[in-house]
Amino acid sequence: MHGTQIRFQALVWTFGAREFAALLMDGHSPHRPDALLHAAQSRGLPLTTDVRRVPSAPVPGWRIEATSLESDRGRQTRLTVQWPRVRPLVSHADVDLSQRWQQLAVTHRVGLLLIGRDLVGDRNLPARVTRLAESGALAAGIVAFRSGSAFRPRTRFLHERGLERRRPVGR
Predict the structure, then answer these.
(1) What Rg do the C-alpha atoms of the chain give, in angstroms?
(2) HEC string for the chain
(3) What is the spatial distance between Cα 97 and Cα 107, in angstroms, rounded to a whole number?
(4) Residue 122, exposed/middle/buried by CB under 10 A (0-12, 13-18, 19+)?
(5) Contact indicator for 13, 19 with CB cutoff of 8 Å
(6) Which residues of 154-163 are buried (b: 16+ CB within 10 A; e: fewer)?
(7) Does the first or last residue of the chain, that is N or C, have fewer Cβ atoms within 10 Å of its Cβ?
(8) pLDDT tens digits along 8-46
(9) pLDDT, tens digit, for every residue of 70-129?
(10) Residue 17: burial class (beta carbons within 10 Å; 0-12, 13-18, 19+)
(11) CA dist list (Å): 131 to 19, 124, 138, 143
(12) Alpha carbon of residue 79 to chain centroid
């Protein structure tokens, strides 16, 4: 996958009344335009012909991880996509996640991962996803989600478990 540029976009994907934290990914390689799709498929992310019929069981070995860091530019959220390899597919990429995306990912502990050609930034995304799926050019699956401090503020986490630290009076 050397020389492949990977783009991604986080959004809320709706199926009827159900919503998912979705991560769209596409990759561009000068030699193979579908390199990311083929790599994902060979590592267990199945091709789908209908995104509404993606199996609800998480795909083994795949996981989205989110963490946040405080920096001089403020709080930054970073995503890592783990797959059945030693090194992650994407590591600590800066991304803006909506509050709804974060809430869905934490609540369900899974996300919907979609990998195809030219997905990111498409204005007519539902039609694009449908065309890719029908032509056998879309890998999709429910993947595990793990979060860091961006999604569970430490004070709330400690309070919920009865472990909050008390500040000394006068400080």
Answers:
(1) 18
(2) CCCCEEEEEEEEEEECCEEEEEEEEEEECCCCCCHHHHHHHHCCCCECCCHHHCCCCCCCCCEEEEEEEEECCEEEEEEEEECCCCCCCEEEEECCCCHHHHHHHHHHCEEEEEEECCCCCCCCHHHHHHHHHHCCCEEEEEEEEEECCCCCCHHHHHHHCCCCCCCCCCC
(3) 15
(4) middle
(5) yes
(6) eeeeeeeeee
(7) C
(8) 899 999 988 899 999 999 987 778 888 899 999 999 999
(9) 778 777 788 999 999 999 999 999 888 899 999 999 999 999 999 999 898 888 999 999
(10) exposed
(11) 21, 11, 9, 22
(12) 7
The pair of structure tokens assigned to 87 is: 């090194």
**What would the two tokens of residue 128 be?**
């694009």
